[in-house]
Amino acid sequence: MADRNAQIRASLNAKLIESGERERMKQLLRQRLMEYGWRDQMKAYCKDIVKQKGLENITVDELVQEITPKGRALVPDSIKKEMLTVLRQYLSKHEEL
Predict the structure, then answer these.
(1) What's the chain's average pLDDT?
(2) 14 part of a folded domain
């Protein structure tokens, strides 16, 4: 079952890339996150972490690892729902997936 899900995800991702829909969805997500102030929140959070740990004491990879859970949690449900709706609309138009 996990194998089948991975195949479906890979196929969907390939179709989204081919059609340009993935890029359009990324642009929409960026726009919505900017409107919500998510980027500013994350920027402030990054600055706080760097201040706490010291610039010389944290790598970019470590910073990304630390901020990722909070970044995901800060995405409003309304944006998640909108993105899911866009994806479902795409799928309904491309039922061959």
Answers:
(1) 93
(2) no
